[in-house]
Amino acid sequence: MESAQFEELYDLLDRSGLAIADAPTARAHLDELRGMYEPQVAALSSVLALSLPHWTGSGKPLANWHADVPERGRAGRALSRGPLP
What we know:
The chain is mainly alpha-helical. The protein has one domain (3-80). The chain is built from four helices and no strands. The chain has helices at 3-15, 23-47, 64-67, 69-80. It is flat, with a radius of gyration of 20 Å. The relative contact order is 0.09. The mean pLDDT is 77.
C-alpha cells in the first residue's frame, strides 16, 4: 500500500471516531496483517481473473438494493411465470 493510500485510510478511520493507534504503529500493524494474507489473495485473484478492490471506496457507495437490482429483475421475471410444470 502506498503512503497516500494509507494516509487516506488512516484519515477516514480517524474521522470516524474510532480509537486507533498513532499512524506509524497502525501502519506497522497493518503491514504485518497484510503480509499474512495478501500473497494468497493476490494469487487467488490472479487464478480467478478477479481484480482486488481498493482499500477505500471510489465515489458514493450504492445502497445494497441498488447493487443487485438486475439480479432481482431476473428472479422477479422467473417467479412471475409461475411454478414449473
